């Protein structure tokens, strides 16, 4: 230890976000952003934001955005919580719901922020190993615990976990909170979300984000849907920490984006079509591609190491995500960009993979 006070402070191992290269002309497929910007409608609203409204504190209840989300999901407003990206929403839910001596459960290969929050808030946890095909084993979650968090579809694998299996987990865990992180659900099949289960399960919390499917990663908006008792407990924690989480621009644009549904659906179907085409192109070139229900693919090559391809791509200004973590350190996570970007990736792979 280098300082006398170090044993009294909180020292944590932070999450490492994907690189955000601050230059143009890169093909950036490393953080699952949406390649299609917000619609012209939204651009107009951005240009018309009122400077005077930045002078005032924003509405601490985020009423406009909460109402819009409640209407969109056909739930009561008391069942919606909003935050600064779903990272904020998830951090608040960890702090609120995971406060037991029993370990919370999550997969060994999933969103790598979960163990970071658990450590930060001193929540004990147990990782449950996915099977050899990177699928969740339901029985791992049918055991005494302090809570459960599952990303569905999962990241970085892209794999969707069947709703009927989630129901088994919810049934077993009626005395702990089960969080389903649906950051990528808009890219999965229709009807795959668990939102419609909140009436049946008061222990279920769903989290969502505007960062991927809604093209607004830079604005930082996320939300949770669940029983009103869960939302109240989350708000109590939020107001004990920071009342004004959502800024004026996020509230104004967030509400408008939810109404902009045609554009949203059009973007989703374009990305899904590109995903299918690109997955096939990868397979044709010797990649194994996990079945993706997201806006990225997780792939490994039979001959070339992922780290090698990752570094060679970066030299060509093509950014993928690579995780130096056991079991997945030969996989690349590649965000689905525009068709022309994916064509550029294929040209790069053809020059590299002989
Ligand atoms: C991207 C992501 C999030 C966080 O998204 P925000 O930008 O903070 O809304 C949460 N969970 C998973 C699994 C993600 O991939």
Index terms:
alpha/beta, 14% strand, binds pyridoxal-5'-phosphate, 7-stranded mixed sheet, 354 residues, 10 helices, 13 strands
What does this structure look like?
- The chain is an alpha/beta fold.
- Helix content is about 35%, strand content about 15%.
- The protein is built from 10 helices and 13 strands.
- It has helices spanning about 40-45, 65-75, 85-95, 115-120, 165-170, 230-240, 250-260, 260-285, 305-315, 340-350; strands at about 25-30, 80-85, 105, 125-130, 145-150, 180, 205-210, 220-225, 285-290, 295-300, 320, 320, 330-335.
- The strands form 3 sheets. Strands 2-8-7-6-5-3-4 form a 7-stranded mixed sheet, with helices on both faces. Strands 9-10-13-12 form a 4-stranded antiparallel sheet. It has a two-stranded parallel ribbon with strand order 1-11.
- Helix 3 packs across helix 6 (about 230-240).
- The longest helix has 24 residues, at about 260-285.
- The relative contact order is 0.17.
- The mean pLDDT is about 95.
- Pyridoxal-5'-phosphate binds near residues 86, 111, 151, 209 and 222.
- Pyridoxal-5'-phosphate (PLP) binds near residues 209 and 217.
Write a compact overview of the structure shown.
This protein is of the alpha/beta class and 354 residues long.
Q: Let me know the largest β-sheet.
A: 7 strands, mixed
Number of strands: 13
What is the gyration radius calculated from CA atoms? 21 Å
Helix content: 25-40%
The helix-and-strand class reads: alpha/beta
What characteristic shape results from the CA principal axes? globular
Mean pLDDT: 96
Q: Please give the count of helices.
A: 10
Secondary-structure element string: EHHEHEHEEHEEEHHHEEHEEEH
Bound molecules: pyridoxal-5'-phosphate
Percent in strands: 5-15%
In order across it, which strands form the biggest sheet?
A: 2-8-7-6-5-3-4
Spans of at least 5 consecutive residues whose pLDDT stays below 50 are: none
- The termini sit apart by 50 Å
